[in-house]
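Q: Give me the 3D complex with S-adenosyl-L-homocysteine.
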Amino acid sequence: MTELAKILRRQIEATGPITLADYMSACLLHPKHGYYTTQDALGVDGDFTTAPEISQMFGELIGLCVAQSWMDQGAPDRFALVELGPGRGTLIADILRATMQVPGFQAAADLHLVEASDRMRQLQAAALPAHHPTWHDTVETLPEDIPVYVIANEFFDALPIRQFQRDPKGWREVMVGISEDGSLQRGLSDAAPIDALNSRLEDTEPGALIETCAHGSAVVDAIARRIARFGGMALFVDYGGWHSDGDTFQAVRGHRPVGPFDEPGCADLTAHVDFEALARAALIVGCAVSQFTNQGVFLERLGITPRAQSLAKGLAGDALTTHVAAHRRLTHPDEMGSLFKVLGLYPASESPPPGLDP
Ligand code: SAH
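A: Here is the predicted complex, encoded as structure tokens.
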């Protein structure tokens, strides 16, 4: 049993079963035993590999997309360049490298990183030796007087979710309790009506399971308000769909699926992102939302193939094989190309970021 499992068991014994959101928060961000606070999760040696860790092309193209959008909005002379959950800092480092040649862009940019883990902040600082980012625990403290250009890759999938199972008498919430042998296990609360879920009564039947992510909607609310008022844009890249439907809670350790309650604190926990809920949070505060677009299509529109061909000219042997595989992995529908999606936020008076349709 992990140290964190013992802590959670004592807590549950004292005060009763906890929600999945509380469980997920503890597993990922517990100050001493959380996954992001203790492990180097990312990369070939870690538990999962993200797009920027696969190829520099991902960050380069996103960098040029951000810079073009900044020029389309009149190249404001001061703006916040923001990344949510920057991991090892690879994506933001690639963005900064790719935009070095864009006149005025970097001089106008204040760099802000939203990162909950001190350990991750250290990795990010090491990846950005020439920059002086301001770190934030939450989006609430981001600047409120300048345009914000926000990137988030595989950030929303790490935010805590709750699960509800429809019941003839309302909804039963999925809770984490203790089994007879003392291990952590999934259970269900008593059924009760939940007003906030009334809209889901139309498209579900008793027995159906849905997921909600209040934290994700709150993040979008804070960012979309800033974009609607001061300009800028946001690009959210993640795996998920356009409507929460069914159980997508999962744990990964060493690139393999494991039971989400087996090793709390030692495995990565994620859930599919419900992009419709994120879009709704943006629209409600007057921010425009792009078409929901596959990552493969987005990267092709931004010119990944010519970029891949140009990089390939300088490569041979294994390096060339790895490069060709990385291009395929990022874009092909059988790989990340259609599993990963992109949603853009932008001011209603402007056009969407390059690569996305209004
Ligand atoms: N964007 C990176 C890393 C994704 S992993 C990449 O593409 O490689 C998720 C990142 O989000 C990690 O840096 C993790 O520490 C951070 N994170 C997770 N939950 C968070 C929260 N609630 N607030 C801020 N950062 C969080």
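A quick observation: The pocket of S-adenosyl-L-homocysteine is lined by residues 28-29, 36, 42, 50, 52-53, 85-87, 91, 114-117, 120, 153-155, 158-159 (CB under 6 Å).
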